[in-house]
Amino acid sequence: MTTGPQKPRSHQEVLDGLAAKGRLRALKGRRGLDFTSNDYLALAESDALRAAASEALARGVPLGAGGSRLLRGNHPEHEALEEEAASFFGHETALYFPAGFAANAAITATLPREGDLIVYDSLIHASIRAGLEPSRIAAIPAPHNDVDAMEAIIKGWRAGGGKGRVWIAVETLYSMDGDRAPLADLVALAARHDAMLLLDEAHATGVYGDQGRGLAAQYEGAPNIISLHTCGKGLGAAGALALMPKVYRDFMVNRGRAFIYSTAPSPLMAAVVRAALKISARADQERTQLMVLVRHAGEGLRQLGLAVSGSQIQPVVLGEDRRAVRLAEALQARGYDIRAIRPPTVPEGTARLRLALTRHVTTADLDMLFADLRVEMARL
Predict the structure, then answer these.
(1) C-alpha torsion sign, points 264, 266, 271, 276
(2) Could you list the active site residues?
(3) What is the pTM of this model?
(4) What would the pLDDT profile of 163-173 be if each residue is shown by its tens digit?
(5) Which domains occur in the chain, in start order?
(6) CA 291, CA 312: separation in Å to the nearest integer?
(7) In Å, how far are 113, 125, 191, 260, 355 from 257, measured between CA atoms?
């Protein structure tokens, strides 16, 4: 006996199902010591960026663009930012987007052509996947940080008749694990296969590299590299800069729907990002202070028997969703802003706390956190 199609679950049933799994999300306000934001250099609320915004307002820079960039929304502040960003990061051109998600999705939806292949790291950010259209291009995930597996995928695709161009997409510093991509090996892989390399520098911008230009700074400007530098994390502002050869920028302006049909980012924010790049260029002391916190956190985590990422992003992997939620809630009650990260943001069975280190905390705060973490983990 056959049955007809099942009635789709209602919105409430879906929410109830998430709650039963310990995966129901809700918006929460800021409270407690900051161990969850991406404001790594503590620039978002800094006097320097406030002054930049005030100065821009005083000289008449508008808050809103009033339209898309291809209509009346294109402002001199957008163009000045893009020119300065291209120079700062060492690329031919830049294109400013209102958010990193929009930029990554637009890049993958627009630039690979029909018949191309995208090989992407299995832990890459959802924004890269958002632009993929399986009917148009082949998109294959590779095991995390496994360059040999990526190469095997490329060779298998070629052997199966793949004729288009290969695109390789990775994060330089992974947002949930805090580990680095093997950039030298990836650059060599791209060279061997005449591939384009998409590098998401979101969590490295402002924090790593000379003047905060990111982990891939030495490779920027190559004709086969496109990089994404978000402005709302280490730079403390908002938006994202896609750095790329001119031909790809021109193609994005003509074919990138997310760019063409979106109201332009705030000209005021573009002015603030310009200031943030200048601040980043001279923020060696702030980066040094952050790395002191990273090293101190590593020592404390080792004493707890926990793995150490070596970066400002430190996961405490607990496995089961509810366990992560209970531990996060216990630490929140003790005065720490720490959140539980659960699937689908991370793979099944790897629910965790994500400890983000910023200049909003001190080594003394870290010592207090690890003492409380020891107590609360023993209670799980």
Answers:
(1) negative
(2) 38, 125, 171, 175, 200, 203, 233
(3) 0.92
(4) 999 999 999 99
(5) 28-45+284-379 (3.90.1150.10), 61-281 (3.40.640.10)
(6) 8
(7) 15, 20, 30, 5, 36
